[in-house]
Amino acid sequence: MGYLMLPVSDLPNIDFPVIQVQALQPGGTPEQIASSIAEPLERHLGTIAGLQEMTSQSSNGMLRVTLQFALSRDINGAARDVAAAIQAARVDLPKTLRQNPTYSKANPNDPPALILALASDTHTLPMLYDQATNNLLPRLSQIHGVGLVQISGSALPAVRVEINPLILYKYGLGFEDVRAALASANAHTPKGYIDTAGQRFQIVTNDQIHRAADYERLVVAWRNGRPIYLTDVATIIDSVEDVRNAGYYNGKPAIIAQVYMQAGANAVAAIDQFHREYGVIQSTLAPGMRLATVMDRSEVIRASLADTRLTLGVSVVLVIAIVLLFLVSPRIVVVPAIVIPASLLGTLGFLWLLGYGLDTMSLMALTIATGFVVDDAIVVAENIARYAEEGLPPLDAARQGAKEVRFTIISITASLIVVFLPILLMGGLTGRLFHEFAITVSLTLCVSAILSLSLTPMLCARLGTHAAENAFTRILERWHEQTQNIYQRTLEVALGHPTVVLLSLPLSLGVTVALYQGLPQGLFPDEDTGMLLGRVMGNETISFQAMAHDMETVQSILLQDPDVAGVAGFLGGRGSSNQGNIFIRLTDKAERSDTVASTISRLGQRTRVLKDARFFALQRGAIRIGARPSNAAYQYSLQGNAPQELYRYTQKLVTQLSREKTLMDVSSDVLLGVTVWMCGLCVTPLRVCRSRRNWSVMFFMTPMGKGRSLSSTTPSISIV
């Protein structure tokens, strides 16, 4: 029951509690958002207990603040403190902020547990996006353990009014006049009622406009007794809220849904729940829409655990075979053949009671503990067999043999548990990673000691320990004699050259130290998950159209690679239109001839045809430290009090690191663009010029150029 009920995951719960706060202010530049939104939020969020790291990124119209808490902090308690801090900071935030900042319990540095693509041959991307946000997103958010569902590739339907400022100036109008006319045409407010004798009439008017055609006859102002319609000063079209979005799946337009898990959540259980509800989710979508799975992390986790279970099974079989080879008696071999599985299954039951799961570390601990379990069983069985050979009855031999080695079994078990005690008491990320490993080994040793002093004597008493004389046992006896003769001759040679034997000890130690220093070192080995994360980064002045063309070019190149099975990606949606994200699904490992590192290098070489953009690809490791996304496996942060000075030295450091031949790629998350302002000669007498031309403040709040992403705290440098 313990084995069947244990939750399945790739690793123990080692995720840092991470919460991401997001604020939206359409039209805001990175500098404005950093000063008016980021700073007040950081002041209040920085007072939360247990906060280890806080980073923020200000970009066009958007702010993202990532909060990483201590491992001991509960994610739900931290979320309540974050909600209280956001509410306290509301009085310091701009009044123009349309909605309060929101938060999600997900780490943006973690790879998504599930990636879905919504495509159709008959529906447009805005229609797909509308279905995804209204039907798909709520369903996915209700899955237990899901922390964040991000929908990318388009935006919600909207009516876009593209104003011609020259014509507006011709009529003596300002942007504020147009804004007021649009607001009054959509004043969805109560109208009241009319009371008459014995009756009450509710006043209902149609003051909501949903289509571009309905805005054409909207009156903005009157000039010389003639109405000025909205179509006279602007172009009105049915579009989306943000046109700088694009989504792709295998080179075709699609909406991409990314599902991120909470800290400590079981990804396999969540994905299993999604597959059970897939039919219901598909039925809620409009006809003609297809929901495809781009990436499923549960497949990799299950495959990894299947390999570990196979290793465990092979180790048990090999141990039993070695016992048979040396003890000769098949009856004695039955004892460890029963005791070993019983000890492992008993350990799984205790793991379930303690709330642990079945993962790579616990299975590895069971595999290692198999050797300890068989030692206890052999010690007891051999001692019982010795008394049986002396002529004692089987039951008396079992009692006397188990009683004699009882203290030995207990002392061996205690000494082995003490060996793993430092690992059990280790703190930090490493301690949490190996905590379950140490617990599993210790439990297995305790269960093995109990069964060796109870089940093993009972089996020896009932089955006996005497080996029957047959051809198989005679072959084993001859092999034993030959082995002993070889050992005797080699021992005589060693005793005849004592100096050489003594010198072999320091030589062995020296070779061991040399090999240790030459081996690559790391916290956890890299694993082939069959999934790569890519990013296309354009220069600071690239247009959205050029960036979309580069995204299509990169995807076309990737799909031509024989090791690539599928590609999905999106552009925009995160406050910057010069960064695109790509998810690359590789073919089965058995069908690939190159390693993942070779595949990444080959893809990087093929995508160097881009002129104004760069492509980065990396494979996320099983363990991710920190909550700040990057384009590489190694990341360094610079800190300083003067932002401009900090950004300047960041560019210098990136330039110097790029010259290192041992580094393949170096990038930074600081992208500084050039902002071009309208009417540069009127900066000093700004209010006079604004009044004379009937321009509002909103006219000057939006620059013509595109300000690019700025980090409001410390810039990060990613190194491959």
UniProtKB/TrEMBL annotation:
Record-annotated membrane-spanning stretches: 310-328, 334-356, 363-385, 405-425, 437-455
GO MF annotation: an example: xenobiotic transmembrane transporter activity
SUPFAM superfamilies: Multidrug efflux transporter AcrB pore domain, PN1, PN2, PC1 and PC2 subdomains, Multidrug efflux transporter AcrB TolC docking domain, DN and DC subdomains, Multidrug efflux transporter AcrB transmembrane domain
InterPro entries the record matches: AcrB_DN_DC_subdom, Acrflvin-R
One CC-aspect GO term: plasma membrane
Alphabetized UniProt keyword annotations: Cell inner membrane, Cell membrane, Membrane, Transmembrane, Transmembrane helix, Transport
Official protein name in the record: Uncharacterized protein
Source organism: Acetobacter persici
